[in-house]
Amino acid sequence: MKKNIFLAFFMAIAVCACNQQETKPVLTQSGLDPQKFETNIDGKQTHLYTLTNKNNMEVCITNFGGRIVSVNLADKNGVDRDVVLAFDNIDDYLNNASDFGASIGRYANRIAGAQFTLNDQVFQLNANDGDNCLHGGPQGWQYKVFDGKQLSDNKVQLSLLSPDGDMKFPGNVQVQVTFTLTDDNAIDIQYSATTDKTTVINMTNHSYFNLSGDPLKDNSDHVLYINADNYTPVNAKLIPLGSIDSVKDTPMDFTTAKPIGQDINQTDFEQVKLGNGFDHNWVLNTQGDVTQLAAKATCPATGISVEVYTNEPGIQVYTGNFLNGKVKGKHGIVYNRRAAVCLETQHYPDSPNQPQFPSVVLEPGQTYHSQCIYKFTVEK
């Protein structure tokens, strides 16, 4: 009898141990638990999608805001590095307003006075950056749940219907964002959109890159190149003045690669002071040619570089000046000031109010198309 009791006891322990093993989460290469991205928001389900290529590079994306959550690749010493800032669970995205890795829309960057005129009609938007509208307003697309479809191991497509009046923008806009991880270690992001009313649109990806893989280190040693002879200077509210100025003989000149930290504190130059560092739109020399290098950032310590290619006329370079150490990201790491650099390909800020800038108007019957490629290389 005792023998049977002991046998039953040990079998129960074994079954319990097996059940524990069976419920142990399967993590991504960067240590993410996909189950922590599962929730329901306004009747729509959120997920974490994983893309891989033949080089064992991995990119994780959530359909909440169309966000890149991790970019994992080996550095020059063969050590895996996750090189973007983000959160490692959906609750932190819901509880912390952020643009980490997001697909921004309807309008990336700022619209002055949260207002623009289109076909003689004034559209008053929702202000969320002083009296400006920033990144589509307080409930821009970075806070929407896209419909996701994993097309293959290396491709995911996200879709969203933005209704007429969404954040007070006109038109029912149907948008798609497709992420493809190529075998040459590039994240190819393609945006498309259509509308049933004349509207404005300007999309971008807002990934925060720290190519050291250690967000406790700031971006000062990242070497940056921008293929731009000109930029759009701003006022105290970071709205373009309307002019296109030369970068020559200013801290804004990255036509020869240099460390971000070299000139970032030159506050005797007004534009650096106004941006609290770099937070400006550069006018690209590439003329919409997606085969030409638009920008490149490199971390000398890891050898990891990200090259940027785009059909857009501009790139907003933001050096994390307003990160303040109050937010904990993946693995509980605090994100301090200048913990990353953003390379946001887009049309110029406030273009709806500045007719001399390239147009951002989308008409019914037209298809908006934007492309951004983040290609990663490792320099030994």
Write the layout of secondary structure elements.
Blueprint: H1 2-23, E1 39-41, E2 44-46, E3 48-52, E4 58-62, E5 67-74, E6 80-82, H2 90-95, E7 103-104, E8 110-111, E9 115-118, E10 121-124, E11 133-134, E12 147-152, E13 155-162, E14 173-181, E15 186-195, E16 199-200, E17 204-205, E18 208-209, E19 223-226, E20 230-232, E21 245-246, E22 258-259, H3 270-275, E23 279-283, E24 295-298, E25 304-310, E26 314-318, E27 341-346, E28 361-362, E29 368-378
Antiparallel strand pairs: 1-2, 3-4, 4-5, 5-6, 7-17, 8-11, 9-10, 12-13, 13-14, 14-15, 15-29, 16-28, 18-27, 19-22, 19-24, 20-21, 20-23, 23-26, 24-25, 25-29, 26-27
Describe this structure in words.
It is a single chain. The chain has helices at 2-23, 90-95, 270-275; strands spanning 39-41, 44-46, 48-52, 58-62, 67-74, 80-82, 103-104, 110-111, 115-118, 121-124, 133-134, 147-152, 155-162, 173-181, 186-195, 199-200, 204-205, 208-209, 223-226, 230-232, 245-246, 258-259, 279-283, 295-298, 304-310, 314-318, 341-346, 361-362, 368-378. It has 380 residues and is mainly beta. The chain has a single domain, classed as Beta-galactosidase, Chain A, domain 5, CATH 2.70.98.10. The strands form 8 sheets. The protein has a 9-stranded antiparallel sheet with strand order 12-13-14-15-29-25-24-19-22, with no helix packed on it. Strands 18-27-26-23-20-21 form a 6-stranded antiparallel sheet, with no helix packed on it. A 4-stranded antiparallel sheet has the order 3-4-5-6, with no helix packed on it. Strand 12 (147-152) and strand 13 form a beta hairpin. The model is unreliable at 5-18 (pLDDT under 50).
